[in-house]
Amino acid sequence: MDENYGFLMKFIKEIDLINEPGISADIRAFFREDEKVKDYNLNITPENIYELKISLMNPNWSEKEDIFFQFVEIMKYSGVNMFYVSHEYLNENIFVTATKNLEGVCFKIYFDN
Question: What is the pTM of this model?
Fold first, then answer.
């Protein structure tokens, strides 16, 4: 575990993670519009962490990076936004977004190879 990952994990514990239906609807709309995505699976953990498993039509590094940062741009709140990107083919990524009051959402995003 590197220092940035550890910092992000501590920060997540400070956030009041929320689960609201609009988030799932936004995720569905995002993936419905993107032709690069073959399939995706969304799971919400008991801790209110949104786990996304994404299969791409062309699963190369560039496509994964493109999808990840488009997702961040669409889903971010105006307060705090942090992310951790795995350096091994972008297979595991974490994105946290929160309001100034530290109410927010945590996404764990996994890409198939």
Answer: 0.88
